[in-house]
Amino acid sequence: MLRRPSRDGKKVFAVGVRPKGELVRYDRQSRQFVPYLSGISADSVSFSKDGKWVAYVTYPEGNLWRSKVDGTEKLQLTFGSSIALLPRWSPDDKQIAFPAAALGKPWTTYLISANGSEAKPLMSDISDVNWSPDGSSIAFHTGYTSGNPEERSIHVRNLKTGEESGYAGIEGTLFSALVSRRSLHIGGTDRTREFGAI
Question: What global pTM score does this model have?
C-alpha cells in the first residue's frame, strides 16, 4: 500500500488495493465469456459428479463454498486464515477433498462433508488430490513445495485401510495425479505416464 504524509504532517494519503476476479463461463451461442454464478470473485471451480452442485474458492479470501449450479443453496464450508484450493468432489458427491494452508504453514489435505462439517486433516505437504472412481482411494502429489524436484512423487492412499503405494518422480517431473476409470495417470511437466489400475 502506497502512503504519503501531507505537507503539514497532519494527514496521511494512502492507496489500497483489494484483488478481485470474476467467475465466467464460455457461451457457445454468443461466443463470449459471460458471468457465472452472478460473476462472483472465485476460482478453483469443481462440479459434482451428478452435475447438480458446484464447489469453489472465493478470491482473495480463500474460503471454500458449495452451491447448486444455479447459485442457490449456498453454503460456506471453510473459515479462518487458511487458503483453500482445488476442491475435488468424491464420486458419491458426499465429500470434498481439498488442500489448504495458512501463511507460513505447510499444505494439508482435508476432507469435509458437502453439507458442512468440521474439515478433517488427511495428509500433510499435499498440493493436489484426486479420487479413485469408487471413492475408496485418493491419489495425491507430495514434495511440490519443498523446492527440491527429487522429492516430488505420486502416492495412492486407501482411505479405509490407510495403505499407501508410491510412484517415485521421474526426473523430478511428476505432479497432479489424475485418475481415469481404469488406471492412474501421472501428469508431469513434459509427459504423462500410466501406472496401472488402482
Answer: 0.77
